[in-house]
Structures are given as structure tokens and as C-alpha cells.
Amino acid sequence: MNVSSTRRKILFFTPYATRTGSEMLIYYMLKYLDRSKFEAGLVAFAHGELLNDLPPDIPVFFAPGKFSIKDKIAFHLGFHPTHRAIKKISQAFKADLWYVNTVMLTDVVKMAKELQIPVISHIHELSAMFSQVSSTDFETVINDSSMLIGCSDTVCKCLTESGSKKVKRLYPFVDLHEIKPDPEKVKQIRKEWGVGPDDFVWIMSGTTSDRKGFDLLPDIALQIPANAKIHLVWVGNLSDDGLVYWTRKRCEQITNVKIHLIGAKKEDYASYLDAADGFILTSRQEPFGMVLVEAAWLGKPIVSFASGGPTEFITPELGSLIPNLDIALFVQSMLDWNKKLSTFDKEKSRKKALEFNVENGVAEWQRIIDEF
């Protein structure tokens, strides 16, 4: 019997193909997929940087995320460019299953139902993103997905409350082998930041959005005593929007804390994280937060708002969970960790991170697919 005929063909769909948490998860699935059981293809709606890193045996297809003038004309004539592209891809790849990694790709779920193809929707969002989807489209995802996978108990609860009876939980996972900070680079980075021997650096990694609490950075800084010798670092692409402009202007006026907005750091990302002494998660709402696993693996104490998923990861040994948006208590916890950093057990932190390594995650994902 031909081996390829026994393999299940899965067509993955991802919106931007960037290095955000949910799309990195798709990348890990494609990279570590058991080739004896599965054959996979990927549909992307943008030419993101992640496509350059995909394994060579994964075929990539494109569907229009933004319409050209030609597409717009076709749309007004009654021909939906995205639907046409997906149908064409479906005919070419002939998948047994479609796999969608966000609540935002509702057109894909609609097309799966029309073509009578089973579809799994992997949801990494909470209400802040639910509000960006129409009630009809959200209902489509809930009712017409063959199965829903939530990235945390917090997300699964939302999906169940929305009426789905086919919900599985799969925590995010990280390829810990890729987190290799360069000790010399770490020293250089701290020098560039002007970190003194008694200074303490807190870092946050994420998009500069309202949900991630980017605008809370100056609020946190203003409550830190001037003699605390603290640096606040935000690593992540600085969006070209009014929120970022306003927040940057506020940060420029702060003198009691050194604030570093360093942009995205793909090449030396692990070294930048490791250059900090602790990690802060300022999200107003967080489905899980893969960066928590990265911070724990690097042995950094974590201070986070109890904003959803972090409550399922952080223990008192790993860091502090603060009632949501209690900035005074958040800052006090940071100051407390400054004093007790020498007692932080990095090995326990790394042991916790190991639970979320890519080997465990992909094995659990494949078990869910097998059962499905």
C-alpha cells in the first residue's frame, strides 16, 4: 500500500504568517508534524516573514487578504475573490481536514461547510477580539466548526458558554531549543541600555496594543520611586497609531525610570529577553501568553495582571499575579522581586517551562487530531 494514501491531509489557514504567538504555534505544528501520519499544506492571506522559515515539504498557497482593484471589481460583480481562491486551493490540495488558527477567518469556516469538509477552529482570543467579529460570523465559528480548540481553560470556558459542545483545550507550546541567548550579546545589550551594577531591568514582549497594555507602561513608571534604579523595556513592533504616539510622548517625559522602546528583535530576541532581570505582563486581557513560557525558561520572575490565561501558568514560585489593573500593587510586587531576586529558583522556573515544550505540545495536538 502506498504510504501517502494512508496519511491524512490537513490544510492549515493562517491570516498574516507573522511571528505572533498563535501563528508560531502553526509553524511548530508544521515543523514537527509526524510525516508518517500527516501531510500538510498552508494557506496564508499575506506574505509574512514566517513563510521563509517553513519546512520545504510544506506547500504554501495564497488567498487575497487585501483586494486589488481587479479583485474589488470582481467582488462587485458577484464573484468573491477570497472564496474563489479557497475553492481553487481546495481542488488542488484535496484535504481531509481544514485547520483554522483564529476566530477571525470566518470565511474559511463558511467555505468548509459549503464544500462539506471537516474544519477545526483553534481559538487564541477572548472578548476583546470577539468584538471585532459580527455576531453572525461568531455564531458560524461556534456552530459550524467540527471541533473547537481553546488555548487555555479561560478561552474554553468562553467557547462553551457560547454554545459549543465540541471543545478541547490545548495549551500553547514553545520550541525551547530555539531560545539560545548569547552571553556576550546580553552583556552588550545591558551596556547599551546603560544598566548599572545595582539596576534592575523589567522587560515586556508583545504588540503595542491596548489589549497588551502598552499604554500602561508610563502609568507603571510614574509609580516607581526615583531611587529604585529600574529600567522598563518593551520589545515588539511599534505600531504606527495614535495610541503608540501618545504613549511614547508620555514615556519621553518620565525621568525617574529609564524606558526603552526597542521595537521588534527577531534575530537576537532571546538575548534581549535574557538581558532583563524580570518579566512583566501588562495585558488587560490575555488568552494565555506564550512569552510567559519563554520568560520562565530563561529563569525570570514574572509579574502579571490576572488577566485570564496567566492564572493558569504563574505560581507563587514563578512570580506574582496581581488583580487586574491594580497598578500600585503591580509596582509594589516589582519592587519586592527586586529585593528577593537572589532567592528565585531558576530551576523550578525552567521545570515549569518544560511542561510547555514543543515535543509535549505536538504530541498532545496529534492525540487530539487522532481522536477527532
Give a summary of the structure in a few sentences.
This protein has 372 residues and is of the alpha/beta class. It folds into two domains: 3-173 and 357-371, Glycogen Phosphorylase B (Rossmann fold, 3-Layer(aba) Sandwich); 176-354, 3-Layer(aba) Sandwich (Rossmann fold), CATH 3.40.50.2000. The protein has helices at residues 3-6, 21-32, 69-76, 81-93, 106-115, 127-130, 135-144, 153-161, 183-192, 217-222, 242-252, 269-274, 290-297, 327-340, 346-354, 358-371, and strands at residues 8-14, 38-44, 60-62, 97-100, 119-123, 147-150, 167-169, 200-205, 230-235, 258-263, 278-281, 302-305, 319-322.
Largest sheet entry = 7 strands, parallel
Q: Average the pLDDT over all residues and give the rounded result.
A: 93
Question: How does CATH name the architecture of the largest domain?
Answer: 3-Layer(aba) Sandwich
> How many angstroms separate the termini?
24 Å
Give the class-level CATH name of the largest domain.
Alpha Beta
Numbering strands along the chain, what is their spatial order in the largest sheet? 3-2-1-4-5-6-7
